[in-house]
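We were asked to recover a plausible sequence for a given structure. The inputs and outputs are reproduced exactly as logged, with field labels preserved.

PROBLEM: sequence recovery
POSITIONS: 670
GIVEN STRUCTURE:
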């Protein structure tokens, strides 16, 4: 990044760093070559006049955002083709820079439609659809959620009834609540979609299955007969994406359009069930596994913005007549921002782990070995929920830490927030996902009680709970991990005990589940938190990190662990695991860690290696020239392009001069 024009405050911050930023940046991305390649690809976007001439996203109406989103996405796609980039990670680096936090109207096509064909279609189906989809003749999405049901997939109402006479499925939306509602890129962009519908054949229902459905003409994009489709209207964010509704009026599609890799309907209507019904949920598991990194990136970017800004912003003389300190020197600012910085590192590392696990398990599934599916489901569902919640709440804190300017779109923070926060809902509502993880933990608990060996990341379950913490003034990483293990093990047991006592008291299984669900949620959250702490501790043992970097990252990791305990103290203290004295160690350690991290705070956010174009923020600029940038942003606002705004003639003039009238005044007289 260019050192030109960097403000003295930021230049001094960088010169104080005690570790090599490049060493940490290489580690976080996975090596020097990858970092170089990322920078190369992102520089292409940064230099490209096409992106430079785009109007600021924040000054666009929703329709303009969609228009801009589509034109950018198509341009990006063509550029990727021109550059011969097929690797998903490389394409991501380029896209991340070219259209940062602008949810692409083609996003569902490459994130869900293509992967679903790849994973759920037969070789013949792939041969037919993939060339068309890869070349954007077929543009598709994933249409599962309905007006009435999102979470409960088995409750979906869209039907696909097989007619052996014509060898067709009849797709139908029998009720208002059966209309598909929310799928991205559906309202105006897609001409196809994978539709999740209840399969009926030979008079029997077989649950939700996937069907390839053409909804628009590939010649002129007109909506095909038997289909009603449109956008769902404005949302909290996602202006670039045409999330849509869709319904079918007894639409007939060929039998071959059922995605038949795992389950089949023969010509005569005979149903062949899959090896495991949950294989049909594979696309959701893929996306959940990648959302953890998405959320972590959003939080990391918010930390870059708020920490750089806090190093530039000065406020309130420390003593009468004294210099105004950088707001980053206020302990309360550090208390809000440094734990989030630590959390951003932890979640990025967790994101890497879960995605690699997805790839490994997926490899096994491809070979027909489904043994690890439950673990992957529990890990990806829980971490998706934990990470999106932590990141969304954290981004909002970062925004508030920027004072008034944080509220401006110029800060870039609102755009990041509205892009990350729907991750709490899509691909499985967070509480529901936590409860899926809890379901797995309950099974593990009963297996542990029967003396069975558990897989690696749940081996702590069922451990002896009559222990005391080994925590001393020094706050060793090992003692932190032990504390998180104890808390998770205790909460898993408490949830299991509660379930058991409700059942023994005469409640039915589902009543006992609901009556224990708050405790089950706590247990799952504690489990995910433990995972993040332990994974962080393990990750910083990497050989590629220099000793100076390890020293700094050890402090960051300690802060992550210590802060998490202090924020959830009741759960760690309820059974007397920690003494009051030990809590004192932790409190003092947290404050000491703030001082420890302070000289490296800017270097630590630099190591995330986000160019200004990704941040899209006047406050988070690498050069720290925030005031000029804010002023330029204000000057560029469309409302500043005329001296007198048209509303003066419509409304103000008649108010100031009552001889003239306006619509509003007329209305008031009535
Ligand atoms: C880019 C953004 C675009 C957004 C796109 C979208 O949002 S698209 C829309 C996204 N929409 C959503 O994400 C909707 C969220 N909803 C769901 O995913 C499901 O309805 C559910 C998981 C909540 C329940 O499912 P259910 O009622 O069918 O199941 P059940 O509770 O009866 O449990 C039966 C057993 O199955 C197990 N099992 C479940 N899933 C998996 C799996 N993937 N793998 C392996 N296993 C799995 C479960 O643990 C249990 O095991 P046990 O204990 O018996 O051994
Ligand atoms: C931006 C965005 C993009 C989306 N894109 C797509 C897409 O491309 N394709 C698609 O098919 N869908 C998409 N969706 C829909 C999304 O997947 C669903 O909204 C999501 O799965 C949640 O389902 P729901 O809306 O039915 O929530 P609900 O299930 O109605 O949740 C409402 C509340 O009820 C609670 N609740 C529900 N069930 C339980 C339970 N069993 N136990 C305890 N509490 C429960 C939840 O915790 C929540 O608090 C998108 C949604 C958004 C916001």
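RECOVERED SEQUENCE:
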């Amino acid at each position: 990044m260019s050192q030109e024009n960097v403000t003295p405050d930021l230049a001094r911050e960088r010169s104080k760093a005690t570790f090599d930023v490049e060493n940490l940046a290489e580690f976080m991305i996975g090596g020097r070559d990858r970092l170089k390649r990322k920078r190369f690809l992102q520089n292409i976007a940064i230099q490209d006049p096409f992106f430079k001439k785009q109007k600021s996203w924040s000054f666009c109406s929703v329709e303009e955002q969609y228009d801009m989103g589509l034109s950018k996405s198509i341009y990006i796609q063509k550029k990727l083709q021109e550059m011969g980039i097929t690797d998903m990670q490389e394409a991501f680096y380029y896209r991340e820079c070219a259209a940062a936090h602008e949810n692409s109207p083609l996003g569902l096509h490459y994130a869900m439609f293509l992967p679903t064909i790849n994973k759920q279609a037969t070789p013949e189906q792939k041969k037919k659809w993939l060339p068309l989809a890869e070349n954007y003749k077929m543009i598709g999405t994933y249409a599962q959620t309905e007006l009435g049901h999102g979470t409960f997939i088995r409750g979906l109402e869209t039907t696909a009834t097989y007619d052996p006479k014509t060898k067709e499925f009849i797709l139908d939306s029998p009720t208002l609540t059966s209309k598909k509602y929310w799928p991205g890129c559906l309202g105006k962009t897609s001409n196809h979609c994978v539709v999740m519908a209840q399969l009926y054949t030979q008079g029997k229902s077989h649950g939700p299955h996937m069907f390839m459905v053409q909804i628009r003409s590939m010649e002129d994009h007109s909506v095909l007969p038997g289909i009603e489709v449109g956008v769902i209207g404005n949302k909290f964010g996602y202006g670039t994406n045409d999330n849509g509704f869709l319904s079918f009026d007894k639409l007939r599609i060929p039998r071959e359009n059922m995605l038949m890799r795992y389950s089949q309907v023969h010509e005569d209507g005979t149903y062949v069930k899959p090896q495991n019904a949950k294989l049909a949920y594979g696309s959701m598991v893929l996306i959940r596994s990648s959302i953890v990194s998405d959320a972590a990136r959003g939080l990391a970017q918010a930390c870059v913005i708020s920490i750089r800004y806090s190093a530039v912003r000065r406020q309130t003389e420390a003593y009468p007549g004294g210099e105004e300190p950088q707001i980053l020197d206020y302990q309360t600012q550090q208390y809000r921002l440094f734990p989030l910085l630590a959390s951003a590192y932890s979640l990025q590392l967790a994101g890497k782990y879960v995605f690699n696990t997805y790839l490994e398990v997926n490899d096994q599934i491809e070979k027909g070995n489904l043994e690890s599916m439950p673990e992957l489901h529990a890990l990806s569902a829980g971490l998706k929920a934990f990470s999106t919640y932590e990141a969304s709440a954290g981004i909002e804190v970062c925004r508030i830490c920027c004072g008034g300017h944080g509220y401006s779109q110029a800060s870039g923070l609102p755009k990041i927030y509205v892009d990350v926060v729907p991750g709490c809902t899509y691909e499985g509502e967070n509480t529901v996902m936590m409860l899926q993880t809890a379901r797995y933990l309950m099974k593990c608990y009963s297996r542990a009680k029967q003396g069975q060996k558990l897989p690696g990341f749940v081996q702590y379950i069922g451990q002896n709970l009559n222990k005391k913490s080994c925590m001393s003034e020094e706050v060793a990483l090992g003692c932190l991990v032990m504390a998180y293990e104890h808390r998770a093990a205790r909460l898993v047991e408490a949830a299991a005990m509660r379930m058991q006592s409700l059942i023994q008291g005469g409640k039915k299984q589902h009543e006992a589940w609901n009556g224990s669900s708050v405790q089950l949620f706590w247990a799952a959250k504690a489990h995910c938190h433990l995972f993040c702490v332990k994974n962080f501790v393990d990750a910083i043992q990497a050989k590629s990190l220099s000793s100076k970097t390890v020293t700094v990252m050890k402090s960051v990791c300690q802060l992550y662990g210590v802060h998490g305990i202090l924020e959830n103290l009741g759960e760690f203290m309820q059974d007397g695991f920690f003494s009051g004295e030990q809590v004192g160690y932790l409190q003092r350690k947290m404050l000491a860690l703030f001082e420890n991290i302070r000289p490296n705070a800017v270097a630590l956010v630099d190591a995330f290696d986000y160019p200004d174009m990704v941040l899209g923020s006047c406050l988070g600029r690498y050069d720290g020239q925030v005031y000029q940038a804010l002023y330029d942003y204000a000057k560029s606002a469309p409302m500043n392009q005329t001296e007198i705004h048209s509303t003066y003639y419509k409304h103000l003039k008649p108010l100031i001069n009552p001889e003239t009238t306006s619509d509003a005044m007329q209305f008031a007289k009535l």
